[in-house]
Design brief:
about 190 residues; 8 helices
Length: about 190
């Protein structure tokens, strides 16, 4: 018999991520089209030179944010957050981590920075992004605060570069390295 409280298997986590974030991406693309935002330039920018700079900026900002999360890992709210994420995700394998990091980064950035930020503004989008990562429940408070701050960084990258490449790569980098770290930590 399946234990409903057990963390998902890596395969279940991958399939769930693919389905959920395909829907999130689709919703973002629909809202972008509704606003007459051209998707390809919004995602990739205007020129090849921009791609290299924006990619480097996104990965660099992501590595800096990963460094911040590692530096704060001894802080009690961060330890509680790590335990909460580990309880939810279990110990996903490398493929599941890649699937989760790619799908969440692409889907959330298309929805939040591509579709909602032009519609609702920088601050409201960051707030909604944070609340989407745990709502108002007390046990998720550290995750919500971290997600709001990350949302501000992602939004700033989108505003600065004028496209979604930098925030998407930043988001992927944070998720990829932090999920790998959490999967390796002993409970």
């Amino acid at each position: 018999m399946l234990d409903p409280d057990a963390p998902p298997t890596s395969a279940a986590l991958s399939v769930s991520a693919l389905i959920i974030y395909a829907l999130v991406t689709l919703m973002g693309l629909v809202v972008m089209r509704w606003q007459d935002i051209e998707v390809v330039p919004a995602v990739f920018g205007a020129s090849d030179a921009d791609l290299r700079v924006h990619a480097a900026l996104g990965i660099g900002a992501g590595l800096a944010l990963v460094g911040v999360t590692r530096a704060l890992s001894g802080w009690a709210p961060m330890r509680a957050l790590e335990e909460l994420v580990r309880e939810s995700l279990g110990r996903p394998g490398s493929v599941a981590i890649i699937v989760l990091a790619v799908t969440s980064a692409v889907g959330e950035e298309i929805l939040f920075r591509g579709a909602l930020q032009p519609l609702l503004g920088f601050w409201m989008t960051a707030l909604l992004f944070g609340l989407m990562h745990g709502g108002t429940m007390r046990r998720f408070r550290a995750w919500v605060v971290f997600a709001i701050l990350a949302g501000l960084l992602f939004g700033a990258l989108a505003s600065f570069t004028g496209d979604l490449l930098a925030p998407t790569l930043c988001h992927f980098t944070v998720n990829y390295f932090n999920l790998h770290r959490l999967a390796r930590l002993e409970p």
